[in-house]
Known about the structure:
Elements: H1 2-41, H2 44-76
Helix pairs in contact: 1-2
Amino acid sequence: xxxxxxxxxxxxxxxxxxxxxxxxxxxxxxxxxxxxxxxxxxxxxxxxxxxxxxxxxxxxxxxxxxxxxxxxxxxxx
Length: 77
């Protein structure tokens, strides 16, 4: 029973990391949509800014994703 409690604690940390990673991807998608809408309307400055922010969030998501993959592989071994 004590092992179950310990395992649930480590899974809770992973779930929190997963939520953070998913929210970062959601923010990247939101800023990408803002950039598309701003470009269609003609606000090129706002579109460029939103696209830049979306790019930063997307690459940050990729870095966190790779870190989580590496961390998951090392935990299993």
